[in-house]
Task: inverse folding
């Protein structure tokens, strides 16, 4: 296998499912924030988080579109991937707090 084929396979194996994961988690977080008040965020913080999620979702969609349309030959800068990962972790923290608050009201 040549270097180009190795590179393409690596991108297909890692980047493609990673982009799908980001879209999944950003979609879930967006739905949660649009439909519920978060106990750990005030209104402005919740709006800010939602705006950042929407922006990141659009970035991931653009990366996914480029990746697919250019024959899976496009990579994403690791600093951008790291930003998306940090945002997903923030979403998980907010989601956990929300679900814990719902459990405590039962």
Result:
């Amino acid at each position: 296998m040549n270097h180009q084929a190795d590179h393409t396979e690596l991108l297909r194996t890692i980047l493609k499912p990673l982009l799908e994961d980001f879209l999944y988690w950003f979609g879930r977080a967006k739905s949660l924030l649009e439909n519920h008040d978060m106990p750990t965020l005030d209104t402005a913080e919740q709006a800010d988080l939602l705006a950042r999620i929407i922006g990141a979702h659009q970035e991931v969609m653009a990366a996914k579109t480029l990746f697919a349309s250019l024959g899976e030959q496009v990579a994403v800068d690791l600093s951008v991937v790291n930003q998306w990962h940090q945002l997903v972790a923030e979403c998980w923290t907010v989601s956990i707090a929300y679900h814990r608050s719902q459990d405590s009201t039962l």
Summary: The chain has a mean pLDDT of 89.
